[in-house]
Specification:
By secondary structure, this protein is an alpha+beta fold. The protein has a single domain, classed as Beta-Lactamase. It has a 6-stranded antiparallel β-sheet with strand order 3-2-1-6-5-4, sandwiched between helices. β5 and β6 form a beta hairpin. The radius of gyration is 25 Å and the shape is elongated.
C-alpha cells in the first residue's frame, strides 16, 4: 500500500511539476514575443519619423517604401516574390496608396524595378516617362513628379524601394537643373536617405 501511495504521489508531483514548467515556458515565450513586438514598434516609429522628415525636406506630398517579401508558392513550389507598400507618409488630404498596394507580384513591376536599380527613376515631370503603363499609373493617383531609389541590405540584396511623389506641391527649385531634371546633389542626397533606412527594414 505504501508503495502504491508513493507511486501515486510521485506521479502527481511529476504532473504538477510538468504543468508548472509548461506554464513557465509559455510565460517566457509570451514575454519574448512581447519584447519582439515592442522592438518592432520602436523600429517602425523610427522609420515613420525618418520618412516624414525626408518628405518635408523635399517638399513632396507622398513618401513611401515598397518592401519585397515572399507570398506563398506556385505549383512548381518556387516562391511567389511580391512587394507591398509598408510605410507611407502623405500631405494632409492626400489619399494613401498603402491600402491598395499590397501583395503585388514582382513580375508586374520588372521594368520599374530595373530602372530604379539602374538609377533611372527620376522624373520631375512624369510625362517624360517612356513606360506608358507607369505613366498612366502615376497619373491615376495625381502624381506629377516621381523619383525612387533602391534600398539594399548589408549583403547588397535589394530589400526595398524608397519613393517620393509630388502631387500638388512644387519641387524646390534648388533641386532642379536648368534643363528641368533633378540635380546630382538631390540624387546623391536622396540615395543617402535610402541608405540610412536599410538597418530598420
Amino acid at each position: 500500500m505504501e508503495v502504491l501511495i508513493t507511486s501515486v504521489t510521485s506521479i502527481i508531483i511529476a504532473l504538477v511539476g510538468a504543468g508548472f514548467f509548461r506554464r513557465m515556458r509559455d510565460n517566457q515565450d509570451k514575454n519574448r514575443s512581447k519584447e519582439r513586438l515592442i522592438e518592432q514598434i520602436k523600429q517602425d516609429e523610427i522609420v515613420h519619423l525618418a520618412i516624414r522628415d525626408v518628405r518635408r525636406r523635399y517638399n513632396a506630398d507622398r513618401i513611401y517604401i515598397w518592401q519585397f517579401h515572399n507570398g506563398g508558392s506556385f505549383y512548381t513550389t518556387s516562391p511567389m516574390q511580391k512587394l507591398s507598400i509598408t510605410y507611407e507618409r502623405c500631405s494632409d488630404g492626400l489619399e494613401r496608396k498603402a491600402e491598395k498596394n499590397q501583395n503585388h507580384l514582382i513580375t508586374s513591376f520588372t521594368s520599374y524595378i530595373r530602372d530604379v536599380m539602374d538609377g533611372n527613376m527620376y522624373y520631375p515631370d512624369i510625362e517624360d516617362m517612356s513606360d506608358i503603363g507607369l505613366r498612366s499609373l502615376s497619373s491615376s493617383s495625381g502624381t506629377k513628379g516621381h523619383c525612387a531609389v533602391p534600398i539594399y541590405d548589408k549583403n547588397s540584396h535589394l530589400v526595398a524601394i524608397l519613393c517620393l511623389d509630388w502631387v500638388f506641391s512644387e519641387i524646390p527649385a534648388n533641386f532642379i537643373k536648368k534643363d528641368g531634371q533633378f540635380t546630382q546633389d538631390f540624387i546623391d542626397e536622396f540615395s543617402t536617405d535610402a541608405d540610412t533606412l536599410d538597418t530598420y527594414l
